[in-house]
Amino acid sequence: MGEPLLETRGITRRYGGVTALAPLDLVINRGERVALTGPNGAGKTTLLALLAGVGTPGGGDIRWVGDASRSVGWVPQRPALYPRLTVRENLRLFAGLERVDDAVATADRLITRADLGEFADRRANVLSTGTLQRLNLAIALAGAPALLLLDEPTGTLSPDQRVRLWAWMDDLVRTDGMTLVFSTQSMDEAARSSDRMLVLARGRLAHDGPAGAIDEAAFMTLVEEAP
Amino acid sequence: MRALRAGRLLFTKDLRVLVRSRGLLAVLIGYPIVIGILLALALSGGDRRPAIAFVNLDATSGRTVQVGDERLSMEDYATSLEEHVDLVRLDPAAAEEALSAGRVSAVLTVPKGFIADLQSGLKPPVLQLATNPRSPIEAQAIERNLESAIFRLNQELATAYVTQVLNLVDLIQKGGTIGIFGRSGTLMGLDDSNRMLAQVQAQLRRDGRGALATRLEPLRVYISEIGGNLELAKPAAQAIASPIRLDIRDGAPGREPLSALGIAGALVVGIGLVGVLLAAALLSAEREDRVLSRLGRGLAGPGTIIGQKAVLAAVACMIVGVVLLGVVAVSTSVEVGRWLLWLPALLLAGLASGAFGLLVGALARETRTALLAGLMLALPLAVISLIPGNDIAYWASALAGFGPAARTFQGLLVDPEVTSSTYSGMGIMAVVAVVYGVAARVALGRRMHA
């Protein structure tokens, strides 16, 4: 297990009168692949968004360890990009906003790495779902993040697109030493593609253990017994 | 520095997206320009003649007034007014009902004793005009029409009266035939009197009665001086008849003049709609494209996004304003100058309406809602900003900066000197831009970090 990269201490979030996240303590280690699962409304997206800095916790704090603070790539569930710009223009724009030294070179490198060369000069609004998700992920990598947060990245993908996406994610962890935290509705995907599995239920952390340590029956028990 | 760089990148992105969205661009910029031009033409009035109820309370008197060789009645007066407006002859109750129902634009009443006053010359006769307070723009146009008609009629009457007086002066000087109460007689005149007195004096001197002739000399001098003074009074009387003459000439063909109100209206509606709709669409599109969550993670803060979009909207408004003014300068007789004031005025109007649109865009959930809400809010405010002389309309439309913009534009078009109201209008636009800009920034910040 790597060194701690990020810690949360008692972070909470409420939307109106609804508790989305109860006080939650968590440590994410460097180079880990962490799967975050749980039923709908369990707080998975809320937790990822708070880690990404998209929202502000109602209470508690998030502490980055070492010099990797704020170096986060955020892949929202639905692609967050400009549909009327081309693939290349989107990547150059976000690389520029990430203040990389050479946005043009960064965009070209990401196009190659995400296997988007064929679509580089096409507008995003004509891309297929799988290609669009690759672009969504490539944009998140523009700032060369240490931590990549993905909200249900394979939810809309076909089986072959899922395989290709996870192959790319594995490469990022192996080659770049990146840390992954992703949410998923699939226990199989969580078991297959992660080192560690977190189960959230009603805004609380119901389980934190190695991937594959619990089966579906145990998962159901955790969810149903959550306070 | 980081914010400037991010703002520049997003500005360029917005321009690129706009150029690629030709349909949207046509709606956001073409539509306001077309509406603005149509409004300018409508406000300029064209050749439309307003319908005015004519109530003659002096008709039963049957009196007429002698003007020179002519005898005028109230009907003659009405006929001359009809050259400028469409008169509908009604009784007082029907006229009031027609005005209330909007079938006529005003009621012109001739009070009892009008002709008597005109004839006596002791006090000026007064016509009464009632306009519909619900149509202040039309009321102002009617007042101008009638003032013009009455001025011309007064001038004709004054000229006739003076001609009559000059004829009498001629009669006193040179003598002639005079008619009084249907009977005529011969008047000798000052010239003949002077000549006759000189002959009498000469005869007296010849008869050795020089002393008597000398005693008559002051009378002859007196008659001579009266004649001389009456001669001097003629040009003065001519000057009183028409101290200033208006020489009306047709303009060059093909250059139809628009009124300042019409041009200001075109600018306010054009710039107002471009600013509001463009800014609202640009900001709500960021939300619809779901990129706010990415940008909000330190890539571009709400202040940067609001700032770059406000600048883009203001620049677009300034270009639209310059194009509209260019059209006015080329196709009408209005001379457009003061460009050093026009440019900041257009820019501030664009910033104010753009900031208003940004607040709408920050609050709306999607682009279509933002555009609809922007149009529904901006169009009526822009139109009421053109109601002249109404403080409520001015301050209501100032909510989006339109009222001050309209006054500033009219001032730049017609005021002989740039007045403090022009600068205060620009100041109010700047304040409106800052207030809405800050409000839009707060609303966007909440959206980005919700």
Describe this entry's structure for a reader:
The complex is a heterodimer of chains A (227) and B (450). Chain A has 227 residues and is an alpha/beta fold. Chain A contains seven helices and nine strands. Chain A has a domain at 1-71 and 145-154 and 178-227: P-loop containing nucleotide triphosphate hydrolases (Rossmann fold), CATH 3.40.50. In chain A, helix 5 links the parallel strand 6 (147-151) and strand 7. The longest helix of chain A is centred in the C-terminal third of the chain and has 18 residues, at 159-176. The radius of gyration of chain A is 17 Å and the shape is globular. The two termini of chain A are 31 Å apart. Mean pLDDT of chain B is 82; it is low at 248-257. The A-B interface holds A 49, 52-56, 70, 72, 74, 76, 78-85, 89, 93-94, 96-99, 123, 139 and B 2, 5-6, 9, 13, 16-17, 20-21, 289-291, 293-300, 448-450.
Question: Short summary of the structure?
Answer:
The complex is a heterodimer of chains A (227) and B (450). Chain A is built from seven helices and nine strands.
Note the topology:
The complex is a heterodimer of chains A (227) and B (450).
Chain A: E1 4-15, E2 18-29, E3 33-37, H1 44-52, E4 59-64, E5 72-75, H2 87-97, H3 103-113, H4 129-140, E6 147-151, H5 159-176, E7 179-183, H6 187-193, E8 196-201, E9 204-210, H7 216-225
Parallel strand pairs in A: 3-7, 3-8, 5-6, 6-7
Antiparallel strand pairs in A: 1-2, 1-4, 8-9
Helix pairs in contact in A: 2-3, 2-4
Chain B: H1 2-20, H2 22-44, E1 51-56, E2 65-67, E3 70-72, H3 74-81, E4 86-89, H4 92-101, E5 106-110, H5 114-120, E6 128-131, H6 136-174, E7 176-180, E8 183-187, H7 190-206, H8 210-241, H9 260-288, H10 292-299, H11 302-331, H12 339-363, H13 367-384, H14 391-397, H15 402-414, H16 420-448
Parallel strand pairs in B: 1-4, 1-5
Antiparallel strand pairs in B: 2-3, 5-6, 7-8
